[in-house]
Amino acid sequence: ILPLLGIGGMQLFKAEVPGPVADKVRPRLATTARTLWMVYVGFTAAEWVALRLAGLSGFDALCHSFTTLATGGFSTRNSSVGEFGSATVEWIIIFFMLMAGINFVLHFRLLTGRAREVWRDAELRYFLGAIAVAAVIITATTHEAGARFADTIRDAVFQTLSILTTTGYASTDFELWAPLPLIVLLCLMVLGGMSGSTGGGIKSLRALLAISSLRTTLHRLIHPHAVRPVKYGGAVVSETVLSGIWAFLTAYLLIALIGSAVVAAHGYDLLTAISAGLTSIGNVGPGLGQIGAYDNFAHFPGLVKIVLAGCMLFGRLEIFTLLALLSREFWRR
Questions:
Q1: Mind giving me the DSSP string for 61-112?
Q2: Residue 168 to residue 163: CA distance in whole angstroms
Q3: What average pLDDT does the segment 30-41 reach?
């Protein structure tokens, strides 16, 4: 099936690196895969050692190492990471969630002494900026009188990274927060990690190029004769790539809307419905309302679970590939 769709080898790599150019680490895709696996396994082993030194059992440390780097977010405890009650454990997981959300090609460059190239990456700067802005807003709106400011900052940074990288851990019951930080979390569910990371969502590069495209369009409206192409990394981004990004965003939001509508049709409140659609297609894990940090999806009827499972598949795999498989034209051909 994949060759018929034109998907295979380098095409699969490009599907996960949604930019103007899919940057190979090595000339051969197989060698690239082995190199990225070495980086991935290295980070997993390093987190396991760090969590063991922080006091976790070998089993807990291993499970959380596996689900942090995979941004899968499953914990061995019902209350997730917050049940450990350890600031050290949370800061360790914060660091490795950040590493999992960054493009693994950049990790390889850093390990090979090309730090300047890493910092010049526009997507990385955008990703770090989004983390900083979200963490500041959440800290400012959730800090309570008498609470330790350091604890507030840690909870804000932890939940920002957990939702943005689509890891889905919880260090606190964020459903108790005010409406503004909850809106911030909803936005982070959509954004997701960087291209080439293990995170879900629309990927930071798509968001960055969409914003650049919007700015260029506004500039052309004000200056009709101006020539101002969208650029990334010093290279001009083709209109084909930009139209593909807008098509992807449209499909992404439509699928999330369908998931939300099915949940709402079964009598659930608006917050639960919207967050269910976004968290499913983004592969985030927890949502808001009745599927919050310490809740689950078990109470949903069978049809809702099937629809949300479909949203998860669309979000984890390449959307256009699945849409092509479901189209009449593909099967007629």
A1: HHHHHHHHHTT----SSTTGGGGG--HHHHHHHHHHHHHHHS-HHHHHHHHT
A2: 6
A3: 83
The answer to whether 303 and 311 are in contact (CB under 8 A) is no
For CA atoms 63, 69, 70, 71, give the dihedral sign.
positive
**What is the rounded distance in angstroms from the CA atom of residue 239 to the CA atom of residue 247?**
12
Of the candidates 101, 18, 87, 108, the residue with the CA atom closest to the CA atom of residue 283: 101
Residues 6 or more apart in contact with residue 12 via CB below 8 angstroms? 2, 318
Q: What is the rounded CA–CA span in Å between residue 269 and residue 272?
A: 5
Q: Is residue 201 within 8 Å of residue 192, measured between CB atoms? A: yes
pLDDT, tens digit (0-9, with 9 covering 90-100), for 261-312 = 999 999 999 999 999 999 999 999 999 999 998 999 999 999 999 999 999 9
DSSP state of 183: H
- Distance, CA of 137 to CA of 181 (rounded, Å): 7
Nearest to 122 by CA among 235, 198, 21, 232: 232
- What is the rounded distance in angstroms from the CA atom of residue 167 to the CA atom of residue 327? 32
Cβ neighbours of 219 (radius 10 Å): 12
| Interatomic CA distance for residues 94 and 264, integer angstroms | 34
199-239 pLDDT tens trace:
989 999 899 999 999 998 898 888 888 878 888 877 888 88
The SS3 assignment for 134 reads: helix
The answer to whether 160 touches 168, Cβ cutoff 8 Å, is no
Distance CA 15, CA 320 (A): 9
- pLDDT higher for 140 or 26? 140
Neighbouring residues of 47: CB distance < 8 A, sequence distance ≥ 6: 61, 64, 65, 68, 69, 92, 93, 96
